[in-house]
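re: the backbone from monday

yeah here it is again, tokenized this time
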């Protein structure tokens, strides 16, 4: 029996400004990255993705992720169709719910029944992309996210179905991704064991419920990678990202699933202290948390570990740690990861 194929490598480029970020995207494409992913926190995912599309020619361009509820389904569909046209058919729409505080406090949008709202949003986006060029009335969605379009016609899109991936971090959304999505995108904190023992069975439950096959779903495992010649320094640099997510209540089940509820609780307590910032919690992070949820070490150590995803993930979305680090440290980490992609390219 032949060995399972190694997962394709994608990368989420970093830059202090868009010029630096797109330069990193070009370098990642040249190194062999299959997909370039644009996140949504400090920048708009779709605008960042557009900049990457203009700077590259071959890699897929994906949002990982665009927040599903902070833009209307129609705007979401328009943006991904524009991106697909701009990139010559290379776009991947990655949608995620975000967390309650982000939606309600930062964006002022509802967060009730997020799994059902996400299901209805996906229906709206897909229906719009498929029907917007025929000029006929159409409706989609449900009580939480709806679309009713009449008197509208858009020039025919590059594709009438753009790949739509869902970021999922819990049982309901795992199953939803398996049921309706073209792909699943993992959280950047996680482990191979969690993917194998928790995520994949839930994805397969959704696939089975919808009468779909495993090959109908791209499994994109996200990995926060910290590469440095000194393993201790690699571990230190990744701790800030762990602390950032440990301060958010929504991610408590992720830490609990790895037996890390007590060290996660201590980080959350530290965050509640006056003046504490989520991005500066590295000192409160137990090294066991960082070892369990990120991938740290020398280039040789990390390369060996990444090969272990063969047979469980179709592709990997690599990120570098950023929280609590200087720009110089992030640039150095990024350079190490680009070298790693170049080394592991098929």
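seq for it, each position gets an aa:
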């Amino acid at each position: 029996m032949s060995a399972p194929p190694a997962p394709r490598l994608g990368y989420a480029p970093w830059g202090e400004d868009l010029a630096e970020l797109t330069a990193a995207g070009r370098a990642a494409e040249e190194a062999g990255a299959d997909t370039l992913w644009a996140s949504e926190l400090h920048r708009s995912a779709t605008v960042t993705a557009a900049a990457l599309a203009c700077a590259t020619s071959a890699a897929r361009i994906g949002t990982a992720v665009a927040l599903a509820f902070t833009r209307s389904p129609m705007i979401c569909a328009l943006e991904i169709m524009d991106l697909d046209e701009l990139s010559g058919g290379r776009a991947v729409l990655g949608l995620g719910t975000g967390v309650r505080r982000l939606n309600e406090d930062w964006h002022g949008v509802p967060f009730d029944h997020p799994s059902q709202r996400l299901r209805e949003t996906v229906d709206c986006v897909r229906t719009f992309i498929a029907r917007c060029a025929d000029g006929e009335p159409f409706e989609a969605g449900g009580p939480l996210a709806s679309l009713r379009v009449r008197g509208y016609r858009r020039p025919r899109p590059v594709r009438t179905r753009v790949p739509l991936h869902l970021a999922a971090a819990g049982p309901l959304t795992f199953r939803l991704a398996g049921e309706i999505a073209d792909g699943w995108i993992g959280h950047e904190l996680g482990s191979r064991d969690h993917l194998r023992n928790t995520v994949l069975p839930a994805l397969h439950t959704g696939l089975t419920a919808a009468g779909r096959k495993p090959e109908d779903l791209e499994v994109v495992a996200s990995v926060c990678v910290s590469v440095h010649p000194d393993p201790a320094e690699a571990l230190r640099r990744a701790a800030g990202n762990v602390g950032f997510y440990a301060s958010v209540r929504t991610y408590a089940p992720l830490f609990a699933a790895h037996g890390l509820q007590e060290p996660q609780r201590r980080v959350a307590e530290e965050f509640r202290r006056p003046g504490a910032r989520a991005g500066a919690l590295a000192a409160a992070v137990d090294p066991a948390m960082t070892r369990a949820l990120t991938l740290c070490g020398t280039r040789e150590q990390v390369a060996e570990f990444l090969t272990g995803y063969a047979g469980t993930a179709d592709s990997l979305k690599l990120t570098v740690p950023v929280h609590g680090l200087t720009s110089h440290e992030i640039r150095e980490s990024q350079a190490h990861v680009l070298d790693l992609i170049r080394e592991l390219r098929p």
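The mean pLDDT is 96. The longest strand covers residues 218-227.
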